[in-house]
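In response to reviewer comment 3 from the previous cycle, which asked for concrete evidence that the modeling workflow produces usable outputs, we include below a single protein chain processed end to end. The sequence was submitted unchanged, and the resulting structure tokens are shown without manual editing.
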Amino acid sequence: MGLSGIEIFKKLPKTNCGKCGVPTCLAFAMKLATGKAELDACPDLSEDVKEELGEASAPPVRTVVIGTGERAVKLGGETVLFRHEKRFENPPAFTLFLSDKMDESEISAKLTKFKETSYERVGLVLRPAMVAVKGEKDASGFMALVEKVCNDTDAALVLMNEDADALSQAAKTCSNRKPLIYAATMENVETLGNLAMELSCPLAVKGNSLEELAELSEKLIKMGVKDLILDSGARTAGKSLEDQIIIRRSALMKKFKPFGFPTIVFPCEMTDDPMKEAMIACQMVAKYGSIIVLSEIEGHSIFPLLLASMNIFTDPQRPMAVEQKIYEIGATDENSPVLITGNFSLTYFIVSGEVDASRVPSYLLIKDTEGLSVLTAWAAGKFGADTIAPFIKKCGIEEKVKHRKLVIPGYLATISGELEEELPDWEILIGPREASHLPAYLKELSA
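The workflow returned the following structure tokens.
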């Protein structure tokens, strides 16, 4: 954010009405300053103030959305050079490259693999996000390929063609999908700039150098095109990395508006070696590609890239957590065991997986520990007898089971006595220290 919390507070109504969900206007201003609240949450702001604050507090790298609906891709919005300074905002979109020079069977096989590639990791669905369609033959072949991709997938699209007329025709036929139009150059900048504004679609800008890229971007900004994606034209790993760093540093440190947009990179054009392509793509995840175009979507290469992206773009200041509630694993009944643990995502998925593997239907109580692991939460006073007991009484588990036996993590054996005092009707059982021992423990418990 460009403004401090105090600067934002001066422009707020100062009514402390609480309608925004925060008790005071000062607290709301602080949340706005750290990107944890939206301006629209305050119903009393005038449109003029919203516009003023929106412009002033906009991130130095503009947020650009490509596509619509559930598969829309949000890019940019970045405010820091390094993740540890705050956080990275929007992960890169891994994009499958298709050309009308490919034969139909190859295109179908690649699209099928694209659609089937999906992984679930700690509650998140990881998958490639976009399809780039390039016209390299005639307009009719390009249009046919665009139509096929539109019919076969609801993913966000990148439309690529050096023929401005063919590109315009394709963009108009699928403008409801809000595709990225690629790419404005010195030869067609006005034509494609006007097309992007007419269709309200984002526009890629390609320069043969950073200087040319800046000139093109500035020209489009003056035309009124707001959503741009930058391509420096680099097609080697070293030059691409250098350009990405210069673009990000210029936007963040120099406030250079022509470079204040997400970028697109093409590892698929930098090498013929699939493993080298994956390595270059991983480099672009960290520094700082927003759209990463790949020649293939193969599990052995895309899965590590998706994991790297997830890890880098996870907020280091906000642990991943699941919802506090009762989770029923298997066909539970009134005799099913009751276990409790914290709401750190990794803890939940490991424990629930082992409980499921035991084939013993069980109730897993997840207590809000602010995303901390069991021992850390206990040390911080967030997972002790005084916090667990009220949760047990209010969560509704007493209506679901006729027994009163609660299994706590083995590492929390020291609180069992305190819990029995807080919950006199319950028998506190000490579970195993390691989740991998839960299947044997539950089978013995239910025998």
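The first helix runs from residue 5 to 9. We consider this sufficient to address the reviewer's concern, and the full set will be provided in the supplementary archive.
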